[in-house]
Amino acid sequence: MATPQPPTRGALIVIEGLDRAGKSTQCSRLQQRIPNSRIIKFPDRSTPIGQLINNYLTSASSPPLTDQAIHLLFSANRWELLPSLLAALSAGETLILDRYIYSGISFSVAKGALSYEYCRSPDVGLPLPDGIIFLDLPPDVAAERAGFGGERYEKREMQEKVREVFKTVREREQGEWTVVDASASVEEVTERVWAATEKALRWARENELREIE
Ligand code: Z5A
Ligand code: MG
């Protein structure tokens, strides 16, 4: 009699990009195409740590948190979800992350006071994604999209700097990166995102989950 096989692990797919690049739109469209999949959005504003982050982003924290404090809270928000992420992946569920450590590094470095090494170090040991899809959009196009400008980092100058740091992040951080021109139509972006996702799903079927080094 054949012994029951454990389920193949789920894939870890990350959608990154600047503000209003269409990350949440594409995450939903991906989720509809991938059976047994779930979206996890970072920051997860529903936890107590996430509420501190939300207060900061909406400028409600007084006095404002230091750059170090808010950076470590963003990372802690990922670490607090780790047990549930790992449980889902080993049960065969695919996770689609709407932002991850790469936003963490890019936004904090772009503020100017913290080094790249400092910014990446608290996330070392978190799971390495099977594919990272970066939606690239010039900030002036983003600024024309609905909802831009409400939160702390949603300023043109900041977004330009973040875009620059993201280039360094893509060069330095391990993992399979795909850059997609996010100024195309929603449908065209989805097709390009899907091509990269299929690769990541195949990779996850054949390889163990690794950690960020
Ligand atoms: N942050 C950090 O500092 N450190 C960290 O570790 C992490 C995050 C994880 C969280 O913002 C902030 O925290 C963010 C980074 C920082 N700061 N900033 N700035 P968030 O992720 O919660 O932000 P959001 O409110 O979800 O917005 P968003 O993610 O920037 O937007 P989006 O998800 O990329 O876009 P969207 O909601 O899918 O689409 C925006 C609009 O454009 C909407 O009207 C769409 O219908 C439209 N859209 C989408 N695609 C298209 C195309 N292709 N063409 C035309 N229009 C489109
Ligand atoms: Mg979003």
TrEMBL record:
<keyword id="KW-0418">Kinase</keyword>
<dbReference type="GO" id="GO:0005829">
    <property type="term" value="C:cytosol"/>
</dbReference>
<keyword id="KW-0547">Nucleotide-binding</keyword>
<dbReference type="InterPro" id="IPR039430">
    <property type="entry name" value="Thymidylate_kin-like_dom"/>
</dbReference>
<dbReference type="GO" id="GO:0006227">
    <property type="term" value="P:dUDP biosynthetic process"/>
</dbReference>
<dbReference type="GO" id="GO:0005524">
    <property type="term" value="F:ATP binding"/>
</dbReference>
<keyword id="KW-0808">Transferase</keyword>
<dbReference type="GO" id="GO:0004550">
    <property type="term" value="F:nucleoside diphosphate kinase activity"/>
</dbReference>
<dbReference type="GO" id="GO:0004798">
    <property type="term" value="F:dTMP kinase activity"/>
</dbReference>
<protein>
    <recommendedName>
        <fullName>Thymidylate kinase</fullName>
        <ecNumber>2.7.4.9</ecNumber>
    </recommendedName>
</protein>
<dbReference type="GO" id="GO:0006235">
    <property type="term" value="P:dTTP biosynthetic process"/>
</dbReference>
<feature type="domain" description="Thymidylate kinase-like">
    <location>
        <begin position="15"/>
        <end position="192"/>
    </location>
</feature>
<dbReference type="GO" id="GO:0006233">
    <property type="term" value="P:dTDP biosynthetic process"/>
</dbReference>
<dbReference type="InterPro" id="IPR018094">
    <property type="entry name" value="Thymidylate_kinase"/>
</dbReference>
<dbReference type="GO" id="GO:0005634">
    <property type="term" value="C:nucleus"/>
</dbReference>
<comment type="pathway">
    <text>Pyrimidine metabolism; dTTP biosynthesis.</text>
</comment>
<dbReference type="Pfam" id="PF02223">
    <property type="entry name" value="Thymidylate_kin"/>
</dbReference>
<comment type="similarity">
    <text>Belongs to the thymidylate kinase family.</text>
</comment>
<dbReference type="InterPro" id="IPR027417">
    <property type="entry name" value="P-loop_NTPase"/>
</dbReference>
<keyword id="KW-0545">Nucleotide biosynthesis</keyword>
<keyword id="KW-0067">ATP-binding</keyword>
